[in-house]
Design goal:
The mean pLDDT is 96. It is built from 20 helices and 31 strands. The chain folds into 3 domains: 375 residues, Aldolase class I (TIM Barrel); 151 residues, 3-Layer(aba) Sandwich (Rossmann fold), CATH 3.40.50; 145 residues, FAD/NAD(P)-binding domain (3-Layer(bba) Sandwich). The chain starts with 12 loop residues before the first strand and ends in a 9-residue tail after the last strand. The chain has an 8-stranded parallel barrel, surrounded by 6 helices. Strands 17-16-15-18-29 form a 5-stranded parallel beta sheet, sandwiched between helices. A 5-stranded parallel beta sheet has the order 20-27-21-22-23. The chain is globular, with a radius of gyration of 27 Å. Helix content is 29%, strand content 18%. It is an alpha/beta fold. The structure holds flavin mononucleotide. Flavin mononucleotide binds next to β4, α10 and α12. The site of flavin mononucleotide has 25 residues, from β4, α10 and α12.
Length: 705
């Protein structure tokens, strides 16, 4: 393939009886956006159509249930269990075919991991599970405690009934015009439950020996072939390593690969993990590019059918390299396509810098959507689940807009507003754009956040927004603007306790802010580290505090964490938390090879700081008012709070002003970016403040203010 820096990535490939134009695969991603009955709607079509337009060769739509009465992986997954669903599925296939992509749907019964129903779940074996990182985790009500979900083993009649339902599902997808069907044998869902020596404790023909554990999936393959003909390509996804004691290792996965090839499977989609260990299953930020490639590389040595590798693939250079080296036949991208569905086109054109790389935060696509039974969103791509952002129209009326604060919310406002033709000036008090994201650059395992900051900064430059650094504007500086967007974030909280102003007390920003000499945006070296001693107390458990603990723990310091909350970082995305807590205990997330902490992190919940003394003695007080002391070298303030005084004064002066991001309400990156994007769209027409002091473009004809 000529005219691209990535000839291997854009080399066609044959899978079963169809040709794919390139080596890019959208690995199955349940977007939990179908209708409540599992039928296809415009949102599902648009999501996949954009990926097809974006140049992805082979799109495997996420988990679709063959029997919604007994199991849906997410509450709004696609369903393939009734014939009246076929026309909608056909429209979905057509939308992808229109743009040259080939497509499949992954059929999955969640078994023990069903998000719905929540009770009376079926599986290969009786068990009780609570898997906090999974979308099917036990729902624990506000005043309740986790008990675990009781799961019931299927009898043989039920197993054959489900096999038949898988067969019917395959047939419906063929009828709808899909090029292939994929079986979901990964991540501890039903097929994986049968395949797994760890989960499957049956002693009949569906459990025990290797071949008995494979019988369920083999029967499904046979049933689909019987209904669809032997040429209809069937793929299978499974985890090459499940990363838990007693679960599958690569050796057995090679055996499975051979068996699947013999059984007429057309391709292998090699994944990782079982949900008991969410790290390798869902790859939080800690996981490096291509950490799972070695499994496909090994499996590929033993089969002739195409092998797809996935998990944290973001960079076209890396993807090209593993294809060129013969380690895989295709590269599988899930979250990268959520963050930027046009990855393929951008890579082909050699515009790698234009790719909005997924930062693996799992906030929009998992924590704040599938896990809590909502439609999928994305922290950095506001167009996912909100189609208003796909084809952004120019504003009818152009404004002069001031954005105060160049963090993620401010940058997103500026990006959307300039795209729409407004003239934007960003006022940033530091020497560079990036805001709170820049605190992550210095934290081991978190520096993917930097990718987003850099991408935004390039966009801002390209779109010619004016950036004025090292300035905190006064009201008079903002007078000439049509609208003022305050995006200054939250400030470090400094509770009024004895000792708060001592030099040994520093803020998380002092510890985390990037001070690299090599950073193109931050050329001066700011010298002395904020934390000078070896023993540190971090007060708080929000983002800044958590990142500070990571940084200091990684550097070998002894860290105590004091939080008024009952549990450390309850807000944190659970897959990240699983890995982080393991790191606190001086180990690592499964599949990670990085340095571990020299000293364990000690979390002291339900407690506050009462007094800090000059010699580093810190008096803490628990929820029963019991006092104790700790001796430390530094105290790091990790709580933040918004300060609305400037906003209120501007409002009183009649300025059309609005707050976004953490200044409005302390949340996370997704909160800030979504606010910024929404304001970028609201800047139009009559531009007014409504009775909530929200900026709106207009009201219906005849309704005037
Ligand atoms: C929102 C979301 C939905 C997912 N749905 C599925 C699914 O339906 N089937 C599946 O096999 N894997 C699913 N996965 C796992 C991904 O396919 C992929 O293996 C994982 O996210 C790691 O790869 P990535 O770094 O390319 O995202 C899902 C992941 C996410 C984040």
């Amino acid at each position: 393939m000529k005219n691209t820096p990535y000839p291997n990535l854009f080399e066609p490939i044959r899978i079963g009886n169809f040709d794919v134009q390139n080596r890019i695969c959208h690995v199955p991603t349940d977007i939990c956006s179908a209708n409540a009955d599992g039928s296809i709607n415009d949102r599902v079509i648009t999501y996949h159509e954009e990926i097809a337009k974006g140049g992805c060769g082979f799109i495997i739509c996420g988990a679709a249930t063959p029997d919604k009465a007994t199991g849906r992986p997410t509450v709004c997954c696609i369903a393939v269990d009734e014939d009246p669903l076929i026309p909608g599925l056909a429209s979905l296939a057509e939308a992808m075919h229109r743009h040259g992509a080939k497509c499949a749907v992954q059929v999955q019964h969640p078994g023990r991991q069903a998000a719905w129903p929540r009770k009376n779940l079926i599986s290969a074996t009786d068990m009780v599970v609570d898997i906090p990182g999974s979308a099917g985790h036990e729902v624990i009500y506000a005043e309740g405690a986790a008990k675990g979900k009781a799961i019931r083993s299927m009898n043989v009649e039920e197993i054959y009934d489900l096999i038949e339902k898988f067969g019917e599902a395959g047939w419906r997808l063929q009828q709808a015009g899909f090029d292939s069907v994929e079986l979901h044998g990964a991540h501890g869902y039903m097929i994986a439950q049968f395949m797994s020596e760890y989960v499957n404790r049956r002693n009949d023909r569906f459990g025990g020996s290797f071949i008995n554990r494979m019988r369920f999936v083999l029967e499904i393959i046979n049933r689909i072939k019987l209904k669809c003909g032997k040429d209809f390509p069937i793929g299978i996804r499974y985890s090459a390593e499940e990363w838990l004691e007693g679960t599958r290792k690569l050796e057995e996965s090679v055996k499975i690969a051979r068996l699947m090839e013999e059984s007429g499977i057309a391709y292998l989609d090699i994944s990782a993990g079982i949900f008991e260990v969410p790290g390798p299953t869902m790859d939080p930020m800690y996981y490096p590019e291509g950490w799972n490639t070695y499994t496909a590389e090994e499996i590929k040595k033993h089969v002739k059918i195409p092998v797809i590798t996935s998990h944290t693939l973001r960079d076209p250079d890396y993807c090209e390299k593993i294809l060129a080296e013969g380690k895989t036949d295709m590269v599988g991208l899930s979250r990268q396509m959520i963050a930027d569905p046009y990855w393929g086109n951008k890579a082909k054109a050699g515009k790698k810098e234009e790719i909005r790389k997924c930062i693996s935060c799992l906030v929009g696509c998992w924590q704040e959507s599938l896990m809590i039974k909502r439609h999928m969103r994305c922290a950095i791509n506001p167009a996912v689940g909100d189609e208003r952002f796909i084809n952004i129209a120019p504003a009818e009326k152009k404004f002069e807009v001031a954005v105060v604060g160049g963090g993620p919310g401010g940058m997103e406002t500026a990006r959307i507003a300039t795209l729409r033709g407004h003239s934007v000036t960003i006022f940033e008090k530091t020497g560079e754009l990036g805001g709170a994201i820049l605190c992550c650059c210095t934290v081991h395992g978190k520096n993917k956040m930097r990718w987003y900051a850099d991408w935004q900064r390039r966009q801002i430059k390209k779109l010619n927004a004016e950036v004025r650094c090292n300035i905190e504007p006064a009201a008079s500086d903002l007078k000439g603007f049509d609208a003022v967007i305050l995006a200054t974030g939250a400030k470090v909280a400094r509770p009024d306790i004895p000792g708060i102003d001592l030099p040994l007390v520093v803020s998380f920003e002092d510890v985390l802010r990037c001070k690299s000499k090599n950073c193109e945006y931050y050329p001066e070296d700011k010298g002395v580290p904020a934390v000078t001693g070896d023993t540190v107390l971090v007060w708080g458990d929000h983002f800044g505090a958590a990142d500070t603990i990571e940084k200091l723990g990684y550097e070998g310091k002894k860290v105590y964490v004091v939080t008024e909350n009952m549990e450390f970082a309850e807000w944190m995305e659970p897959c990240h938390k699983d890995v982080m807590v393991k790191r606190f205990a001086q180990s690592n997330g499964e599949g990670l090879k990085g340095k571990t902490f020299a000293k364990p992190v000690t979390v002291i919940p339900n407690t506050s700081v009462f007094e800090i003394k000059k010699d580093g003695e810190v008096v803490i007080v628990d929820s029963s008012f019991k006092r104790s002391t700790l001796k430390v070298d530094n105290v790091v303030l990790g709580w933040v709070e918004p300060d609305h005084s400037f906003y209120k004064s501007l409002l009183e002066q009649g300025v059309k002003v609005t707050m976004i991001g953490d200044l409005k309400k302390v949340r996370n990156l997704r909160g800030a970016v979504t606010d910024g994007a929404n304001i970028g769209l609201a800047l139009d027409k009559e531009l007014m403040l409504n009775a909530n002091n929200g900026l709106i473009a207009n009201l219906p004809t005849g309704i005037e203010l």
